[in-house]
Design brief:
hydrolase, Nucleotidyltransferase, domain 5, Alpha-Beta Plaits, coiled coil, six-stranded antiparallel sheet, exonuclease activity, Exonuclease domain-containing protein, alpha/beta, nuclease
Length: 521
Amino acid sequence: MEDQLDMAEKKVLVEVVKMAQKRGMSGAKGAWKDFLNSYDKQLGASLSDPSRRSKEVLAAFLKTFTDENDLKLFAKVIQCHSNRALTELFKEESPQHKSPEQRLVRLTLEHPQYPSEYSFPSYEEEWVVIKLKKKSKVMRSTKLVAVDCEMVLCEDGTEACVRVCVVDRNLKVKLNEFVNPGKAIADYRTEITGIAAADLDGVKCSLSDVQTSMKKLLSHGTILVGHSLNNDLQALKLDHARVIDTSYIFKYSDAPFQRKPSLNNLCKSVLGYEVREKGAPHNCLDDACAAMKLVLAVVERGCDTNIPCLHDVVPDSEVAKLLLHRIPRIVPIGELHRAMPGEFRVEPKPSKNARGDTYSALAVFSSMEEAHRVYESLEGTLEKDSFGRSQKVITFHLSTGTEANLCVRETMHDNSLGQLLKKRAAEMLDSGELKKLKVSKIGEIEVAAVNQCTDHLKEIERLKEELRQKDLQIVNRCEDHSKEIERLKHELSQKDLEISVLHKIVQQHKEKELRRKSKKF
């Protein structure tokens, strides 16, 4: 151990010392601050931040520990760091020098979610860290095994592995064991795991036994394959650096990286078959084989890792539900009726993380339309979840008067829901219920139509009569005008005649006057 401490980087020693502080561990010269007071007479414990102390001081403190369990814990921390350092060097190597298997390991390590999802509490009790040797032969090994586990919920709120299956590259079964969790089980999740209480009767295989078997299978740089493999490693309490996660290496071509494809969708898209029928429980042997086949499809056939986005067909029973999630655990499930209007019952959802601060539930309505109406009526902040689906963050008051927040999402994609609503409406047009409605209403519809036609005919006749009256008035006025014109013409003719007669009289008078004057002279 002393050699390991001397060779370790300072940042590794800092982490080990901080862990010892957190756990209240003491060596031959006491805890960290006690050691500083005796080791450094000048500064003592006044400079207790491990990151501000030299590597020599840190190593000197850790060398005061002699208890075998303490030394094993330190070795585990140092091994984890060594594994990480080797994988970082592996990532920096030129891709052209790597085998197809190694390139998939690299793809897994470079996934944006790897640092958070594969950051295990490996220092804790019962955890096993697989040692990764520096030999190039080990780091370049192309040996593959695939694993899958089934987990149950225990009464202490934790999850435990109750079955583990491992297959090799040729799909030969290397491990297929039921596991005794060693504590009381609250929920077998039979509908998901396919495991019942009877399956574990008389089972003596422990998690420690499985870890021993896994250490042998993963020796010499063997690559571990799985789908969402971090969950299996968490259940097995196993930290292994050389992994291929099929949920990382395959991705939807038109979706954000956070939306990882399901194993069933990958099998449909890549292998051409479903790993299980809809609603059927998991079978970890089938799932382990499926994960291995997916990796071999890429390694041996060069299969494209970009797949089309598949929208699962959601049963009508699921469509009539709203998903309530990110519910604080302090909110009793009975209080969820205060969050939304309408009549619905609440179904709690099994939690993937029983130790989390939140939980999820389903609000079940009488119909899809009612669920959609309630969702649309909710007032809250509209946002997108990590898969790009619309959801609302709402605030409601508990019976105690305190406020609580949760997220509400419809159980279908936005586009799919719209299409289903249209489809439902179209189906109703042909449904027997609507046909009965048509038969019961047909008399009323016909009577209304006849009455409407009669009203229209009466209006037409009235308008026609009004038009005739107007035409008659126009004709009469025209006749009157013609008579007036004829009268005026006759009167004008009489005037013309009178003028002509008067003109002649005047002319005759002028002539007489002229003759009279001429006789006078």
